[in-house]
Every structure is written in C-alpha cells, then in structure tokens.
Amino acid sequence: MKNIYFIALLSIFSINHLLAQENSLNSEKIDGSNLIEQLHSDRYQFNKRLIKHEGDLTRLPVSQSILKSGKFTITFAGRDYVINNKQVVEISGIKLSKTALAAITNKLSLLDHLQKNCAETVNAEYKKNQRNLQYIKNLDRQYFSSLKQISSITGDISRELRKPNASVTIELAMDKVNVPQMFTNSSIRQEVLFAETK
User: Fold this and answer.
1) Closest by alpha carbon to 134, among 196, 64, 63, 55?
2) Helices then strands, each counted (H, E), the chain
3) Span 124-137, average pLDDT
4) Cβ–Cβ contacts within 10 Å for residue 70, how many?
5) Of 170, 112, 195, 101, whose CA–CA distance to 146 is shortest?
6) In 172-192, which positions are buried (b, 16+ CB within 10 angstroms) versus exposed (e)?
7) Whole-number Å distance between alpha carbons of 78 and 59
C-alpha cells in the first residue's frame, strides 16, 4: 500500500515538474518591435561612427535571428506571436488557418534569414584586409530594408486582424510580399561593369 502511495506521489510530482517546465518555456516574451529598432540603431550608429572615423572594427554590431529556435512569444505592433521552433503557430486575438500561419512564417523567416545573413556577411567583409565598400553598402541597404519590411508586414497583419475574413486576407497579402535575393560578390561586379559601360 505504501508503495502505491509513493508511486502516486512520484507521478504527481513528475507531472507538476513537467508542467512547470512547459510554463517556464512559454513565459519568455520578447518585444519584437523594440528588437528590430535595436538592430537597426546598432548598425546605423556603427556606420555613423565609421563615417566620422570614430568606428572600432573590433566592435562590430551583433548579428542575430529574430525568430529563434524554441518556444516563446514575440510582440509585433501590439500583437503576440507564439513561435515554436521558428514557426508562427498562433497570433493573439484571432483564429488563423494553418495556411495563413504558414504564409506568415514563410515571409518572416525569409526576411529574418536575409537580415541576419546580410549582417554576418558585412561583419566578415569588414574583417578583410581589402574590403569591398560597394558590396558592404549594398548589403547594408538590404539589411535595413529587411528590418523595415518585417515591421511593415507585422503592422499590416495587426491592421488586417481587425477586419472580417482576416485569415484569407492575410494569406493573400503574404503572397504579394516580395522578398529580395541577397547580393553576391558576382552581382556587385556585374553592377559595376554595367555602370562602367554606360
């Protein structure tokens, strides 16, 4: 009898422990709008210091993903996005279809990957002895554009959520979002050659 009582207590303890772990995973909340502003500001200020010859190339702006792995909540334009392993699984206040959520995930993931890739590539270019400043300039332009597009998309989603048939409208809107391809060294060279032949 004591063994059964002990096993029952152990089971209850295990279940409570698992629930506590799950709640702690779900409790992490990030201000996505603020994070985008911070990423934008860090690189903008870094570039500004370089122009004034006050920059330190040993202290490059940090590159980071906005939609990281794991389970957490990130807020954009006043809406909570529940993320599970880089997938948008829910947006607070509205029931969205799996197709709409997948479309949102797709665009945000592509833009997030682009901004992080641009930041990493620019940082790597700065570490070279002979850096391509035109390449850096174009990548920086894409970096800032990607961040702006994430803010724009999430702002549009927040507005669309108030309308009837929001799920369908958002899904159609995501189809119209154009995510640019990242510049490569070869595309920069072609751009320069084309400009020289004009």
Assistant:
1) 196
2) 6, 4
3) 92
4) 10
5) 112
6) ebbeebeeeebbeeeebeeee
7) 33
Q: How far is CA 165 from the centre of its chain?
A: 26
pLDDT in tens, 39-98: 999 999 999 998 888 767 878 999 999 998 899 999 999 999 999 999 999 999 888 999
Instruction: Give DSSP secondary structure letters for 130-183.
Output: S--HHHHHHHHHHHHHHHHHHHHHHHHHHHHTTSTTHHHHHHHHHHHPPPPPPP
Provide φ and ψ at 81, rounded to 5°: -105, 120
Question: What single letter denotes the amino acid at residue 69?
Answer: S
Residue with tokens 């790597």: 124
Give per-residue pLDDT as tens, 17-55: 444 444 444 457 999 999 999 999 999 999 999 888 876
What is d(CA 61, CA 47) in angstroms, rounded to the nearest whole number?
10
pLDDT in tens, 134-191: 999 999 999 999 999 999 999 999 998 888 888 899 989 998 888 887 765 545 444 4
**How far apart (Å, rounded) are the C-alpha atoms in residues 47 and 51?**
6
Sequential DSSP letters for 62-86: PP--SS-SSEEEEEETTEEEEEETT
Q: What are phi and psi of 88, to 5 degrees?
A: -80, 115
The one-letter amino acid at 159? R
